[in-house]
Amino acid sequence: MTTVGSQQISQREQTMLEQTATPGRLEDVVSTAEEFDRVVSQSLPILLDRATSYTKRFLRETGQWSDDVAHEKFVLRWGAEYLEQFLVSGRSEVPCRPLFLLDALVARQHSRPEPFCYHPDLLTPLGRFIDGLVGRASISRDALIALYHHCYGWGPGQVITVLGLNGPESQRIYKNFRRWRESGWQRTMDDMGLTDVELQDLYDQQQRHRQRFNSEAERIIRFAQAHYRKSEPDHYPCLSRRQWEEMFAQGYGGEYRIWHLALCLDCLQTAWDLGFGGSGAVEKPRVVLHMKP
Amino acid sequence: MEQEQDIAAYRERLIQSVKDGTRRSTCGQSDAIQVFVNQRRVGLLDVAGTEAALQVQTEARIENVHLRSEDGVLLGGLSAPEYGFRTSRISLLRDAVELRVQNYAQGGSVSAVFIPAQSLWDRTRRALAGMADTSSLRPAAAVVPGMRTMAFTQVLLAIVLVGLAADRLTGWATPEKKPLPVAVTQAEAPWAAPLAEVAKLEHQLVELSRMQAKAVDTIQTQQQGMAQLQRTIAKLSSTQETVASSVLMVKQEMEQRRKVAGREVDRLTRVIMSKAQTEQEQLEAEIHSLAAANDKLSKEMYTLEQSNQDLKKRLKSAGVDVSKATVSDRDKPVVAQQGEAAQPPQVAEARPTPAQSPFLFWVTFSDGTSQESIDQWVRDMHGHKGALTEGWQAVEIQPPAEPMERFLDQIKQTKIVKAVRISR
Questions:
Q1: Cβ–Cβ gap B40/A175 under 8 Å
Q2: Dist. CA B175–CA B292, nearest whole Å
Q3: A91 and B72: CB-CB below 8 Å?
Q4: Is B18 close to A84, i.e. CB distance below 8 A?
Q5: CA distance B227 to B232
Q6: Which of its termini does chain B have fewer beta carbons within 10 Å around, N or C?
Q7: Nearest CB neighbour to A45, from listed B15, B27, B72
Q8: In chain A, what residues touch B17 (CB-CB under 8 Å)?
Q9: For residue B216, with 0-12 CB atoms within 10 Å meaning exposed, 13-18 middle and 19 or more buried, which class applies?
Q10: CB atoms A139 and B72 under 8 Å
Q11: CA gap A170, B19 in Å, rounded
Q12: Spatial contact of A225 and A135, defined as CB atoms under 8 Å apart
């Protein structure tokens, strides 16, 4: 019964894909980057639906799909991500057929071992919030620095102190915080499809069951961090206590400290222990989720 | 229904966000640009209004390169080719980034160069520099007179201006000059006006001379720059010539070596060929001599067979004679008859025996072999022991019927025999 149902769904999906593929211009060859921009910009909804359909099919075929709003938003989000990449990369592929180029790009993404960070827990409002923050941190330095605030409640001064940053880097941290407060946070919430009601609901939950909420948040944060740390280059692995000590003592690896410690709770605790273990100047990093920037 | 509206609104929001593209970024011009290779952050272009560059080498094949602002907005990107290189100029709001991506058989490389937008002053400066570059293509000797002419014109202009001013001043000081038909109070105004004008002119002259000095300085600097440039070009061309001559020399040397190597190879080939020919000739001569020896042996064998036939015939005739003699002498005792009758065949059969001398060989025995075993073995061989010299026991037997090699192999295979030889 289930099999028949999924076959029907697949057929519907296929029909939808065929319908979205109908505009002739997208199937035709475009010869210049300008022509590519023009043709593609006129067909964004069609292309988004196509990329979304492929992602949905991928989830179905890998047994990860469920008919609910969270999954629909998840595939829309990734469809938009692929479409954005297609818009900037496709220009360099001309002459090409845009429709099939998009298909190739999505297929290439889906052929990877882990095309995106998927877990049922990440589809709850709390999971989407954390996934949005940590995922954004892998591409935005503002979001990366803001992780210190959202996860541990630190301000720019504490971030600078714990990471042992110097003058110019400190200024950037303040700038990152400011920009995140002004636009970054709201954009991330919008991109994740989180509504004000959902955020308020999360806030209420945290107030009612603080400890349980934060421990659940820590579990999801650790999962998301482990996935998105892979977006760092291969030379960003976890270091031993001795290596961290050496790095802080000699003052090198500023970028390393900023990127890795934001995405690794264990290493952050080690680094804190080395610098502030007994002083009490900065509290030991513990996950206390902050919703607002 | 509400959920569908929620999803539709989300979809619209995403489409709008894709449409907005790079405009979504709130980063300033001085903020760094992040470079992602295969969606992994590999470095920063720390722009700050100046040219910045980033070079990245990867062990894995490069699929794409993305540029993102610090707030994560995708600014541009490039798909890498399967093999070879691809370049692209990503235009940002004002500035641009030159991307170059290359894939090799193993791994790839990315080069990102930030090119800041030029200000008006920069553009003017570059245009002037361009002109200077164009003029620098001409010989310096042609440029210098032009500069001199310009300086001379400026000096002449200044002198004319000074002359004019002096003329005005002397005109005012002359008493014979007819007074102007105006009131004194009104006449003082034209006096005041030229004085102010003169002061202004003087100021302009000073400015002009200062500018002229500056221009001369600039010209001198440019001349020095051009001279330096020429020196550099001359040096470069001489270096280029040296490199070209070196390349030529290397080519010639390679050619020479190739020729020498060719000659050497020819010589070696000839030597090897002549050696092979000599060997072939020797082999042919040996084959020829062997064939001759074979013929000779065949002839000797034929002669021996003939002799053997003769001997057989003689033996037969001798037997007939003996039987005739026996028939004529019947009174002789049987014993004597038998003895005489048996004699000729015995002689005929035993004739080769005296030619067969005993066969002598020497053996050593395995350690621990008893004397009884040795004696038994000698008996089995139907032979008898000879002298024992330095561990080699001489053994004398009847000549073996089988070929020598097989005989020796048989001896060697005997358990107690350690080694065997047939000569001292």
A1: no
A2: 152
A3: no
A4: yes
A5: 8
A6: N
A7: B15
A8: 80, 187, 190-191
A9: middle
A10: yes
A11: 34
A12: no
Integer Cα distance of A156 and A258 in angstroms:
12
DSSP codes joined into one string, B89-119: EEE-SS-EEEEEEEE-SS-EEEEEEEEPPPP
Q: Indicate the range of A71-85, A257-271, B51-65, B175-189 predicted with least confidence.
A: B175-189
CA dist B349 and B358 (Å) reads 18
Mean pLDDT for all residues in chain B: 76
Test A89 with B77 for CB contact under 8 angstroms.
Answer: yes
What's the rounded mean pLDDT across residues B377-383?
88
Cα(A284)–Cα(A268) distance, rounded to whole angstroms?
9
Q: Choose among A48, A46, A25, A14: nearest CA to A98.
A: A25
> Nearest-CA distance from B94 to chain A in Å?
18
ipTM value, please give it.
Answer: 0.88
Q: Which of A132-136, A277-281, B26-30, B355-359 has the least mean pLDDT? A: A277-281
pLDDT at residue B30 in the model: 75
Least confident window among A104-108, A169-173, B402-406: B402-406
Q: Each residue of A187-237: pLDDT tens digit? A: 999 999 999 999 999 999 999 999 999 999 999 999 999 999 877 766 678
Nearest Cα residue to B69 out of B23, B19, B102, B101: B23
To the nearest whole Å, the CA of A264 is away from the closest chain B CA by 17
Q: What is the pTM of this model?
A: 0.57
Q: Which residues of B touch A (CB under 8 A)?
A: 3, 6-7, 10-11, 13-15, 17-19, 21, 24, 26-27, 31-32, 34, 36, 39-42, 44, 63-64, 66, 68, 70-72, 74-79, 86, 88
Percent of chain B with pLDDT over 90: 14
Tell me, what DSSP letter sits at residue A124? S
Question: Quick one: which of A55, A103, A45 has its CA closest to A75?
Answer: A55
Size of interface A-B (CB pairs under 8 A): 111
Whether A90 sits inside 8 A of B10 (CB atoms) is: no
Spatial CA neighbour of B109 closest among B86, B76, B89 = B86
Contact at CB, A76 and B40, closer than 8 angstroms? no
Least Cα separation, residue B8 to chain A (angstroms): 10
